[in-house]
Amino acid sequence: MNNLIIGQYVPGESMVHQLDPRTKITVIFFYVIVIFFANSFFSYFILAAFAFISAMLTRIPAGYIIRGLKPVWLLIVFTFLLHLFVTKEGDVLFRIFSFYVYSGALIQGFAISLRFFLLILMTSLLTLTTTPIAITDAIEDMLGPLKKVRFPVHELALMMSISLRFIPTLMQETEKISKAQASRGVDFRTGPIKDRIKAIVPLLVPLFVSAFKRAEELAMAMEARGYKGGEGRTKFRELQLSSRDYALFISFVFVLLLFWWARA
Amino acid sequence: MRELEQSFIQFDEVSFWYNHDEPWALKELSLTIKKNEFVAVIGHNGSGKSTIAKLMNGLLFPQKGEIFVDGLRLSEETVWDIRKKVGMVFQNPDNQFVGTTVEDDVAFGLENHGIPRKEMIERIEQSLKAVGMLDYRKHEPHRLSGGQKQRVAIAGVLAVAPDLIILDEATAMLDPKGRTEIMKTVQRIRKEKKVSILMITHDLHEVTFADRVIVMNRGQKLIEGTPKEVFQQHETLWEIGLDIPFVAKIAAELKQRGIPLNKQPLNNKELLEELWRLHSNM
Ligand SMILES: Nc1ncnc2c1ncn2[C@@H]1O[C@H](COP(=O)(O)OP(=O)(O)OP(=O)(O)O)[C@@H](O)[C@H]1O
Ligand SMILES: [Mg+2]
């Protein structure tokens, strides 16, 4: 049951963990926009430094963070190679078979892959240091103004939090059903793809049936406990900005100014 | 009207059906529950027990008859107040756990009723303490046993400070240990918080803790009385397919064989005492 950790949250007490999730989301949002305006060595350097310092402040072992990025390494390398061979700017550096590699291509390739890497690093710092439910709360709060145009913000957030609540339950159930089916000779793990897909059907059907039953009972229980929509509801989990958040905002603005100055 | 004042719940000839073409789920049922009373409801599957429970806090509305909760007539207008007064714990521990953690779940009812956050924190702590789950406040549901989840469900209901707690087969999916946990919790809460309890159950051992038992059969009340009175009618119970607890059965058999028991024993201890008394009289 160890693999039941939802998302990739790593519990901790670091400064980054304790930041308000809204702060983290806002900073990352602007970071992601700004990174597309980087165009000089120094401007990249500033953004990279910001990301690495943030990563260090999470106190999560570097190895763990890098392992978490594993699925995207391939994409980063691919981006790099693509730029290397497609861009035709600057001087010809060398030749691989019939391909000429230009100096501009090398720089472009580095820049784009670095951009990509930093984007993914920053967003994964968010999910590494923030519980999914805190992210949900932050989204609900930040989308608050949309309630005025009848956008169902509260319902959306509740839906997300209930999904988060039921993911482990449904995973446990999947495991139970798959064991039960395996004991009847259904094999999900070996054999031709076609057979394996067929074997999933007896797993999914009972899972869906039970999920619908759960949903119905949960709705009944929620109603019995006085749920009547978002109106007039108070909140137990509270988001509060602290001096830490203001400090980050100020330093981030400072970083942005520095960045703008460093642009070519 | 005088009856209304002292009883917390009153059903006046309540009839209910789910679909027109089906027979009545409940038929002209009248019953009352007093303040701080512990009432058990038993009956075979489909006899209307859950329907009674759902009518009591306005999850369903009767087609005929009237329901009063604490003097309020159940209607679309009063239903939100009534749900504050009547809390409900369901059978499946998983499918009534709304929050991602124990304290979030207890908070759910309080949030719904618009309780200010400061008060919420106090109430959560108190009610988790009352069910002995305070140490687990940060736990996620998948790290709790069924019995623990049900205790959290009880805490969630308690936090809203209802006058009546309905447990609809709340122990049915638990192991014996979980069942004892819940029964103990319920009895302690009843003493400390002065709430009424309505316990729907198939477990006749649990029935012995009640002040009064209502036996349902096909949407109607068949027998009503103290557990002792009800178990004495074992033949009627037998006819509708309900068995009486082992101890009550022995007592009935002994009586049939002309062995005079003074009082109807409800548990092993009472039976033993009764047998010792007989023995020393011989
Ligand atoms: N949602 C529903 N729709 C239609 N009919 C229903 C519904 N729920 C219950 N019934 C019917 O109403 C009758 C009473 O059901 P109820 O759930 O009150 O029984 P119960 O005594 O709680 O049974 P159990 O011991 O199985 O929980 C049954 O005949 C049942 O089939
Ligand atoms: Mg029922």
From TrEMBL, chain A:
Q: Specify the domain of life of the species encoding this protein.
A: Bacteria
UniProt-annotated location(s): Cell membrane
Alphabetical keyword list: Cell membrane, Membrane, Transmembrane, Transmembrane helix, Transport
Q: Per its record, what are the GO molecular function terms?
A: transmembrane transporter activity
- Which segments cross the bilayer? 28-57, 69-86, 92-111, 118-139, 246-262
> Where does it mainly reside?
membrane
Return the GO cellular component terms, semicolon-separated.
Answer: plasma membrane
The annotated topology with respect to the bilayer is:
Multi-pass membrane protein
Q: What does this protein do?
A: Transmembrane (T) component of an energy-coupling factor (ECF) ABC-transporter complex. Unlike classic ABC transporters this ECF transporter provides the energy necessary to transport a number of different substrates.
| Assembly mode | Forms a stable energy-coupling factor (ECF) transporter complex composed of 2 membrane-embedded substrate-binding proteins (S component), 2 ATP-binding proteins (A component) and 2 transmembrane proteins (T component).
Q: Which family does it belong to?
A: Belongs to the energy-coupling factor EcfT family.
Q: What is this protein called?
A: Energy-coupling factor transporter transmembrane protein EcfT
Q: Which gene encodes it?
A: ecfT
UniProtKB/TrEMBL annotation, chain B:
Query: What Pfam families does this protein's entry cite?
Result: ABC_tran
**Entry's family note:** Belongs to the ABC transporter superfamily.
GO MF, one example: ATP hydrolysis activity
Ordered alphabetically, the record's keywords are: ATP-binding, Cell membrane, Membrane, Nucleotide-binding, Translocase, Transport
Query: Where does the UniProt annotation locate this protein?
Result: Cell membrane
User: The ABC transporter domain covers which part of the protein?
Assistant: 9-243
Highest taxon in the source lineage: Bacteria
Q: How does it sit in the membrane?
A: Peripheral membrane protein
**Protein name, entry field:** Energy-coupling factor transport system ATP-binding protein
Gene3D superfamilies, alphabetized: P-loop containing nucleotide triphosphate hydrolases (3.40.50.300)
Xref: PROSITE patterns: ABC_TRANSPORTER_1, ABC_TRANSPORTER_2
Q: Cellular component per GO?
A: ATP-binding cassette (ABC) transporter complex
Which organism is the protein's source?
Melghiribacillus thermohalophilus
Under the heading CDD domains, the entry gives:
ABC_cobalt_CbiO_domain1 (cd03225)
